[in-house]
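WARN retry 2 of 3 for item q-0093 after timeout on previous attempt; input resubmitted unchanged.
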Amino acid sequence: MRHPRSTTCFAFALAAAVSAGANAAPLVPERVTFDSLDRDSTGMPVRLTALRFSPEGAAAARGAVIALHGCGGIYGTGKGREHVPTPRHQAMAEMLVAEGYVVLFPDSLDPRGRRELCTTKMSERTITVANRRLDVLASLAWLRAQPGIAADRIALLGWSHGGSTTLATMNAKNAAVAEFRKSSDAPFFTTAIAFYPGCTVYARRPEGFAPAAPLRIFIGESDDWTPAAPCAKLSEAMAARALPVAVKIYPDTHHNFDAPGARMRVRHDVPNGANPGKGVTTGGNATARENAYAEVKAILRAKIGDGSRLSPQGGN
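OK item q-0093 returned
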């Protein structure tokens, strides 16, 4: 039986604690559901689930961020962590909520019966950035209709496969994006941030890409999963057309660099990357993470305001 179209919300208790600080309990999200613009094999809309993190206290209208998981999904992989956000996702949610923003993590995998995509060859994946782009557009439509959300101050952020989806969603030349923007007078994303996305498709054909809003990319120079060079090439092509795409490349830094405490390792179970069949390197870089997250906060404050200063009596 198909779920009703109306949104359902209920408290989503974390199955295990994710440290949010020395003495602070982790922020607990609520789970929400809504229809994607994508359809399943029966022709029915894919029913999405998402985690919504919200600041405490009243506000006239808060800025918001839609955050997109990578190929590994939102949740952890260890026993008992199947419904617990990974440390990276939890940390980002904690940081953005502390800034005063509402954060929405749409799950593109579980509703389609998958836990991860990382170990599947690109040519064999049944969940693509095109599917996820439709999830993001539906998430934006749902979020900007919610009470307490400033519909004209919503940003998009994503990691890896979610970063690639961020680029795909921000491409004003894409037919689905263009149709969505024409279908309503409601504002689109104000800005977008992508951590180590795949830029190759747009670097090869930059004439097919035009950002609908300023786009910032953070990536490691040593990334052998989604290499930095195509992102640099894309940024140069956009600069030549005076379009707002900027990339920051961190030296001696690999994929997944902002994951808290992530150890350096080679993942031989990943068949994709710069050297297919030879695995990919992932690992944290605390210095790069600190710098990138400081810039994320600055970008969002400039583009969607300092959410923590919003109140019923005034703006930001």
